[in-house]
């Protein structure tokens, strides 16, 4: 996947994406109480690169939706809200260093690089915990999360899931990858 810089959607693709995002926004009002769609739409119309990134989130199965707002800047936060980690973003190790360290059976990409190419970033542990207050996510999958440098330097990487009615955070070797582990993205618009 190539970098998101300068990518634009066609007018038709933009119209379709706006329709999908608006319907999801309206159908899931509990994720963003008191946030007006008109303001979200205006911010998206003003930033074609962000709209392209949202299209990538949608195309890879993320089902992006607004989950909050930055009180200082007024920007909206979009997270992947698909029930399970997006299938098109599974079977990835954590980052480039982990990918290059594998000698055999390398995955096709890393979660960090894939996210950067989409113009997004992985959710942090706190963001993932917030997402889990809005519904039940990753009940059959898991998602790589932005890993603190002190953990990554030791070879580990962080991921989360929901099992037995609880949210869990775990560690794994950053070079590992699984068919049921992808990543959830965050985009600030």
Keywords:
8 strands, 4-stranded antiparallel β-sheet, alpha+beta, 4-stranded mixed β-sheet, 189 residues, DUF4256 domain-containing protein
What is the structure about, briefly put?
The protein is 34% helix and 21% strand. It is α+β, with helices and mostly antiparallel strands.
Uncertain residue ranges: none
How far apart are the termini? 22 Å
Strand content: 15-25%
Quickly count the helices.
7
Pairing-aware structural class of the strands and helices?
A: alpha+beta
Listing every helix as H and every strand as E from the N terminus to the C terminus, the arrangement reads HHHEEHHEHEHEEEE
Mean pLDDT: 94
For the largest sheet, list the strands in their spatial order. Answer: 1-2-8-3
Rg on CA atoms, Å: 16 Å
Shape: globular
What characterizes the major β-sheet? 4 strands, antiparallel
Number of DSSP E strands: 8
Helix content: 25-40%
Total domain modules? 1
How would you sum up this structure, described in words?
With 189 residues, the protein is α+β, with helices and mostly antiparallel strands. It has one domain (1-189). 34% of the residues lie in helices and 21% in strands. It contains seven helices and eight strands; from the N terminus they run αααββααβαβαββββ. It has helices at residues 11-27, 37-45, 48-59, 96-101, 111-118, 125-133, 149-152; strands at residues 64-69, 76-80, 121-122, 142-145, 156-163, 166-173, 181-183, 185-188. The protein is globular, with a radius of gyration of 16 Å. The two termini are 22 Å apart.
């Amino acid at each position: 996947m190539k970098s998101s810089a300068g990518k634009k959607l066609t007018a038709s693709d933009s119209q379709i994406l706006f329709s999908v995002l608006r319907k999801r926004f309206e159908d899931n009002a509990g994720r963003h109480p008191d946030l007006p769609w008109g303001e979200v739409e205006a911010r998206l119309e003003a930033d074609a690169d962000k709209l392209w990134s949202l299209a990538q989130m949608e195309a890879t199965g993320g089902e992006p939706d607004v989950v909050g707002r930055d009180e200082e800047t007024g920007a909206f936060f979009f997270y992947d809200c698909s029930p399970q980690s997006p299938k098109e973003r599974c079977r990835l190790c954590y980052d480039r260093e982990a990918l290059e360290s594998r000698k055999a059976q390398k995955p096709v990409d890393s979660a960090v690089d894939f996210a950067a190419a989409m113009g997004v970033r992985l959710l942090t542990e706190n963001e993932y915990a917030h997402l889990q207050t809005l519904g039940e996510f990753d009940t059959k999958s898991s998602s790589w999360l932005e890993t603190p440098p002190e953990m990554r330097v030791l070879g580990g990487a962080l991921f989360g899931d929901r099992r037995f009615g609880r949210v869990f955070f775990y560690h794994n070797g950053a070079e590992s990858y699984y068919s049921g582990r992808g990543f959830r993205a965050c985009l600030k618009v």
